[in-house]
Each structure stands twice: as C-alpha cells, then as structure tokens.
Design goal:
The structure is a homodimer of 351-residue chains. The first copy, chain A, is of the alpha/beta class and 351 residues long. The first copy, chain A, folds into three domains: 4-59, Orthogonal Bundle (434 Repressor (Amino-terminal Domain)), CATH 1.10.260; 73-173 and 309-340, Response regulator (Rossmann fold, 3-Layer(aba) Sandwich), CATH 3.40.50; 176-305, Response regulator (Rossmann fold). The first copy, chain A, is 44% helix and 15% strand. The first copy, chain A, has 14 helices and twelve strands. In chain A, the strands form two sheets. Chain A has a six-stranded parallel beta sheet with strand order 2-1-3-4-5-11, with helices on both faces. In chain A, strand 8, helix 12 and strand 9 (284-288) form a beta-alpha-beta unit. Chain A is elongated. Chains A and B meet through helix 4, strand 1, helix 6, strand 2 and helix 7 of A and helix 4, strand 1, helix 6, strand 2 and helix 7 of B. Strand 2 (108-113) of chain A pairs antiparallel with strand 2 (108-113) of chain B. Chain A binds a DNA duplex (30 and 30 nucleotides) through residues 1, 3-4, 7-8, 15-17, 20, 25-29, 31-32, 35, 39-41, 44, 59-69.
DNA sequence: ATCACTTGTGGGAGCGCTCCCACAGTACCT
DNA sequence: AGGTACTGTGGGAGCGCTCCCACAAGTGAT
C-alpha cells in the first residue's frame, strides 16, 4: 500500500482533525464545540473557536449527514400543475416566508417538483432514501397519496391547507371561513341584498370553508341563503366567466358577487361588463387573494388578503419543531397542531 | 416498550453491501452497475439489477457525496430584494423551467436566499463548503461580488442576464435588444411618430440593451432619436409614474410610450389617464414581460414576452454540462457560452 | 482513606459509498 | 511458447464526520 495519498490534495478544505491538531485538542472535543455541546470548558472552547476561525473551517455536510443520519435539509414539495391554480404571487410569497424562517437555522431548502408521474416517483425515492429531514406540502388535494406516504415513512411533514376538518398532519391555513365572512359582511354593510358566490374547486377544503363562511355571514345578517346564488367555479378565469353567466341567467337581480379568487373575479367582471352591468354601481365585486390582478383591475378589486408569507414562515417553524422532536433525546410533544392565520379585507373601488 | 425496538439497523434501508451479497457479487460491481459503468457483463448487470429491485435499494446520497466529493445538487441563488423588481410570475416561471430541466437527472435543486447580509454570509459558507456542484444566479447587479467569488472558488455557475457585454460567466438572456426593437417597430408600423421610452434600472445590463434596441429601431425607421423622449425608470410602478410625468411635461406631443416593464407601463397609464390621454387613441402603450398585469390592464397591454421558462431550462442545461465537464475524465470544453433567446411581441388593445 | 459521582476529554469504530489496484480469465498477437 | 492487451471482477482504503466508551481529574459524602 504505497501510492494512494494523492486523492486528498493538501490545499483543500480543513477537516475536523486539522482543527483539532491546531487547537491542541482531540477530534471529539472539536465536534462538541461545533455542535454547541455544553460539556466543554470555556478555555477549550475558546481555543477551538480560534482554530476554526484561523483555518476557516466549515463542516462537511456530507460527512455529517452520513455519520449522524440526518440531512439538515427540508423539502418543499410543489405539485406543479396545481400551482397554476394559485394566484400568481402565491408561490414566491410562500417561498419568502419559508426562506425567512430558515435563515436563522442551518437548514437548507430543497425544492421538489411533483407534477408529472415520473417526478412523483422520484419523490417517493427521495423520501424513502430519507434525503430530507422533513417535508413542507403545499396545496394538496383530498385524494393525494403523498400525505399518507409521509406518515407511513414517519417523516415529519406540515401541510398548507388541511385536506379536511380532521386533518391528521400538522397544518397551517389561512382563515378561509373568516375571510369569506369578512367579504360578505362588507358587502352587506354596503347595502347589498342579493349576494352571489362563485366558489373555488370544491375538492379543495379551503374552498368549502369559504362557502361555509359565505353562508354563515348571510344568515347572521338575517338574509336567506339562496342556493341559486351559489355557483361552483374552479379558481380559474374561465370558470369565473362560466359561473357568472349562469348566475346572471338564474338571478339577473343580483347586486353583488363574492368570488373565491381574484382570477375568478376577473372572469366574472368580463361577463358583467358584457352584460352592461357597471361595477360597483350595479354589481359590487369582491375577490380573494389580493393579487396583482386585484390592484390593476378596472376598477381595482376589493379582495381578501391571505398572509401567505406568514403561512410559509409558520409552516417552516412547525416543521423544524417536529424535526427537532424526532431527534434522539427530546420528549415528544405529539400534540396535533392546526394553525389558522387571520385574513384581511382590502377595500378598493369594486365594492 | 415491547414493540418499540426498531434500532434502525436490521429493519433499515439496504446498503450496497447487502445488494452485493444478494446478487452474489462484490461491492465494486454493484457500484458499477448503479453508476452505469459499461465495464460490467450483461449477466452480472441483470443479476445486480434484480437484487436492487428485490431489496428496494436506494443509494445513500450522503455516503456517495462524501466518497465521491460531489453533491448531485445545484443551487438557485435568489437575491430576494431584487426579485421584487421582477414581474410577478418571473420567479415561478423560471423555477418551472429549472425543474423541467432537472427532472431528467438525479440532480437536486437547492434554493438559497441571499437577500440579507446574514444570508449572504451563509451563502459564502455553503459555497466554500462546496455544498453544491453548481450555481444558478438570477438577476445579478453589476457590482455584485457573488459572480467573482464563484469564479474564484471554481464553482460552475450560470447567470441569467449577463452583467455586461463581456460577461465572463456562462450566461443566458432573452434578447432585450431585439425585444425593444420589436416593440418600437410595432409602434412605428402603427403610424406612431413620437415614441417615448421609459427605461428600466440602467445598472441592469438588460435595461441598457432595451434602450439600445429602442434607439436602433427608431434610426432604422428613419426617425431622429430625441434624447428628451428617453426617461429613466426603475422597473417599478412609481418609477413609471414619475417618468411619465416628466415626459408629458417635456414632450406633450408624444403619441406612444414603450415602457421597460409592464409594471412601469401601469404607472405610466395612470398618469396618462389623469392627463386625459386616451389609450391607444391618443397615446399607444407597450410594456415588457407580458405579465398578468398586461392581460388584465384596461385596455389590455401590448407587451414583449420573454421566454422565461425556457431561460430557466437553458440555464440549467448549460450548468449541468459545465458540472459534467468538471468531473474527472471529460475533455473540458471551456468555450464561453452566451445564450440569447428570442422574445415575442404580444399585441393587445393598448397599441 | 474509600467510594461514588461529575466534568472534561481523547480517540476507536463505524456510517455507506467511490476509487483504484490487483488479478483471473480470455484473446490475439509475435 | 511467451508476450501484450484487453475485460470483468473483488475488495482494501479512505472520504470527514458523530457516537460513545474509556478514562483522568476533581468534588464531595461516607
């Protein structure tokens, strides 16, 4: 055994071992300092930290992951096709929140697209391979097998938008029920009497909750809930058009529309205009999401704002906590967590 | 705690060694099969693949990274604050392209935010730690130290939007020059004579190129280039307002405006409307980006579409090629690559 | 003085891969 | 016959960490 040594290249990055030599301590001690163990004397800690600084030591993630069996990374799983249904800034806002929550930690963010079947399969492999410590799941449909798969693999996961009222995974959501109520209460307070609702895709739990909120707000205001005023949409512009056409036909006397998304509202607005209805004079219009479209619509659209960035942050915080709980040591908390964040009505000229 | 005792060991994931035993071959051979080496006989390969399938073997990334000194991951670095200047869907479109290009490979995508100073510092650490095999850089300003740092560390990198005409890094860009020409030629062909330009941030190379394209198109059409018709903006709505006000004051006779972004155009439109100018009757308006805002503006905005998703894909492809070139073996190509993708004018009612 | 702790520390034994050397077997030259 | 050149294969060494056991030294109670 003579010739190998060339691989390591001496000008490379310093290792734990080198730091230890420099500080005049053992490898284990350096490791303890790096990982913030309390079982190190002050003097030793200082010496090690000096050596780390001098050598510009940065731990090797791969080695750490291999030895400790953790990755220090979480994944954000993006079911791409669905994402299109979201308002434009949704994605980047969410990401901003996740990034913010992560910036205080050593955790890295992996982005995994799970749109196509092949990508789904790859995802399953990643998860089986425990390539990440936890998973953030965005916009999952009721029949998606992913959440159950995660539970089975015992991988910590947080979902945005629970799939149902009794979601088993930790979840973060905005208050769809309350947001819808805000919208309808606002319309009622503006004197509107015949308020229609164009729903979102009803296989999305949040869309159902918005319908619930719509109903409840009307009831509380003493209005009768007329089922003819509720028309299913799908969050899309085309869906908004179709729904609006149906509504105008059924209830030409309506004087307000609450749409389950801004994009839907945009579709509805086109149809209203074509029908010669003025906004807000004849028909008041309220959207949901407070996206760029709302600000630039003609007239600017009153809309329910969801705190998407905060949702991203909250999801990440919860996930990190779960990951930490899973580590050796750690009294498991195991409480089911369902966080709901408040929405805000942004009033503009359309209502 | 009877049923609790899963120590990870025996029930855990299969290793190379176990696959080797199962297939009746050596560790090295399995490794060769996994990595697609041609130096394996057909029979052996089949046996190993069978064993892999039976055991559900998935390679351990951390171990591989440690042994092979590569990570099989690339990073997309997002200088968050700047991102706000981009049109809303920019980010998710880009991501879609990157994801698509990656979905054929084993590569993973790491998202790194480099907005705050602390995040920047962390980024520097990551890079020094070679936590990724390559880096995708989005929307970098001329004075950003990041690109040079990457060159110094010899980390493959691809930049979107070169910083100058003689960018040293591999870059992918849309044809800002050509896009601006398309916009201006269109306005000229519509009979407009006095065409103003609200620029983007001029420390962004692409914004400069748009000015160049604007100038050249006018010259070619036989128009005089009037410097009073060029007003600097900053891609923002407020910038668009301010610039439009200045332009109306200086050249109240203008009959067309080419804005360097849709958001800028939205700002300009407000001012034009306040000044009683009708669009497109009195003043034609053309934006840039073809964002959601353009589609929903009143009237809908003619705009230059950039193939952002394709840019993401192209950047990723180029980066993967560079990473591959860096691996042992591989005749380095080392040709400087500057890819420029064509834009497309989307004509709407504003012009 | 003994024992039983506690605190701090060093270093062996892996983690699961890739790399590369050694070498058997075969083929095709001289 | 020997030489040379492949192809295919096995397995040792080592990547840079963490984990944990061993152990020295100090502290206090008996």
């Amino acid at each position: 055994m003579a010739s190998h040594g060339v691989r390591g290249r001496s000008g490379g990055r310093p290792t734990l071992e080198e730091v230890a030599a420099r500080a005049g301590v053992g490898r284990g001690t350096v490791s303890r300092v790096i990982n913030g163990s309390p079982r190190v004397s002050e003097a030793t800690r200082a010496a090690v930290e000096a050596a780390v600084a001098e050598l510009g030591y940065v731990p090797n993630t791969a080695a750490r992951a291999l030895a400790a069996n953790r990755t220090d990374a979480i994944a954000l799983v993006v079911p791409e096709p669905e994402t299109r249904f979201f308002t434009e800034p949704y994605f980047s806002d969410m990401l901003r929140g996740v990034g913010a929550a992560l910036s205080d930690t050593e955790m890295q963010l992996l982005l995994i697209f799970a749109g196509s079947d092949r990508e789904r399969q790859r995802l399953a492999q990643y998860l089986a391979a425990h390539r990440v410590d936890g998973v953030l799941l965005v916009s999952v449909h009721a029949d998606d097998p992913l959440p159950d798969m995660l539970s089975q693999l015992e991988i910590p996961a947080v979902i945005s938008g629970p799939r149902s009222a009794d979601e088993t995974l930790t979840s973060v959501d905005s208050d769809n029920y309350g947001g819808a109520r805000q919208a309808v209460e606002h319309l009622v307070s503006r004197g509107r009497r015949t308020i229609a609702h164009i729903t979102g895709r009803l296989d999305v739990y949040g869309a159902q909750r918005r319908v619930d909120g719509y109903r409840e707000a009307l009831r509380e205001a003493g209005h009768q809930v007329d089922e003819l005023l509720i028309e299913p949409g799908d969050f899309s512009e085309g869906g908004g058009r179709r729904a609006m056409e149906a509504l105008l036909e059924r209830r030409p006397d309506l004087d307000a529309v609450f749409a389950a998304s801004d994009v839907t509202a945009a579709g509805a607005r086109q149809v209203l205009r074509e029908a010669g209805r003025r906004i807000p004079d004849d028909v008041a219009l309220v959207g949901y999401d407070d996206s760029a479209i709302a600000r630039h619509m003609e007239p600017p659209l009153t809309s329910v704002r969801q705190p998407i960035e905060e949702m991203g942050r909250a999801m990440t915080d919860l996930l990190l906590r779960e990951v930490a709980d899973r580590r050796p040591s750690a009294t498991r908390e195991l409480e089911r967590r369902q966080m709901v964040l408040a929405t805000e009505l942004v009033e503009r000229a359309s209502s």
